[in-house]
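The protein record filed here:
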Amino acid sequence: MKLSISDRSSFLGNLTTIGRTTGKERIVKVRFVFYNGKFYASRRTVDGDWLKNILNNPSVVVQTDEQRIKGRAKIVKDSKLSQQISKLKYPDKRKEENRIVVEITPKR
């Protein structure tokens, strides 16, 4: 798998999850951070459907402009890593907010 995304970059892409009640693919546009070979997405609260879907089924797809990358998602428990991702993702005051960060490891 060759990624053309630079490390520590933030970009808009599509996240495909599996619906927790329907079992169908659900696609949402989110801002990702690519950091140390993994993708990260975040939310301020747990009420987003994409996050609830990941908690039910961690198999996801990250779609960049050029690539479709299958991966496995999990909640980041390391607060220092979560803060680092927020700083890379947001240039404004949002970088200081507590966020729920999801780490997506590409499947090899």
The chain has a mean pLDDT of 92. The first helix runs from residue 49 to 56.
